[in-house]
Design brief:
With 273 residues, this protein is an alpha/beta fold. 41% of the residues lie in helices and 13% in strands. The relative contact order is 0.12.
Length: 273
């Protein structure tokens, strides 16, 4: 029998039971199927899509239609994992009404179970309204890639006491507004520990130390697929970029040397496509 699908209340239940949550990004059906089969609890269709799949410099150019397209693919590949879709830049900052419509499209057309958006108290009205109309929300505090220009780069956040206090207060505000989990990105371990201890909903860390209730990584970083820039906190569990390059080199060599393909009369079995 297949393992039961992870649902929103399972997140809080896992925190209450002290069970860590494992989350990774996915952007297509094949990768979603592989990660799901390996047992991840949740798949994030992150707007990191812009950098690791679409080749942009940052996440700002990603559109709602991009996100819907990739979310549909991930949903088709995921059987057990809960699928969360990022709300891209400018799809929730303009007005609460626009945010509801755009988040609604991620669920209705994309098939996501929840949306994620960046920010704390400045977006709290949006979070409250989305939750009120039945759209589960994951918050995202600390380093917020959509504010890259405001901050001047991808820098560690909440390193000063006042900023740390603000972050913890934002996390509590998100919980009070009904968010079911909060991503904490690139913040000191002690701040992540404080936020985690202050909340009943789980914190999902990325570059925030071991004391969060779960962890998320960009799958292309942790699998060694994205070779442009890898944050220092990422553990690379494979080096698929090298594997792909070596396999491709062998294929190119075989084609050029006439070793591939063999004549069909010499190959056993039917063609696979
Ligand atoms: O877009 C993304 O991949 C993310 C993760 C880094 C949390 O937001």
């Amino acid at each position: 029998m297949n393992a039961p699908r992870i649902r929103i209340p399972d997140f809080k239940g896992k925190k209450a039971r002290g069970q860590k949550i494992a989350m990774l990004t996915a952007y297509d059906a094949t990768m979603a199927r592989l990660l799901d089969r390996a047992g991840v609890d949740a798949l994030l269709v992150g707007d990191s899509l812009g950098m690791v799949v679409l080749g942009y410099e940052n996440t700002l150019a990603v559109t709602l239609d991009d996100m819907i397209h990739h979310t549909r693919a991930v949903v088709r590949g995921a059987e057990r994992a809960l699928v969360v879709a990022d709300m891209p830049f400018l799809t929730y900052q303009v007005s609460v009404a626009e945010a509801v419509r755009n988040a609604g499209r991620l669920l209705q057309e994309g098939g996501a179970t929840a949306v994620k958006l960046e920010g704390g108290r400045p977006v709290i009205d949006v979070v409250r309204r989305l939750v009120d109309v039945g759209i589960p929300v994951m918050g995202h505090l600390g380093l917020q890639p959509q504010s890259v220009h405001q901050v001047g780069g991808y820098v560690r956040r909440a390193t000063q006491p006042q900023e740390a206090d603000t972050l913890v207060a934002d996390a509590i505000a998100l919980q009070d507004a009904g968010a079911f989990a909060v991503v904490l990105e690139s913040i000191p371990e002690d701040v992540a520990r404080r936020a985690t201890a202050s909340l009943d909903i789980p914190t999902i860390g990325i570059g925030a130390g071991p004391d969060c209730d779960g962890q998320v990584l960009v799958s292309h970083d942790m699998l060694g697929l994205f070779d442009r820039f890898v944050p220092s906190f990422v553990k690379q569990y494979a080096n698929l970029a090298d594997t792909i390059a070596a396999a491709t080199q062998s294929y190119v060599d075989d084609v050029r040397a006439g070793r591939y393909p063999q004549s069909l009369s010499k190959v056993a079995g039917p063609p696979s496509h």
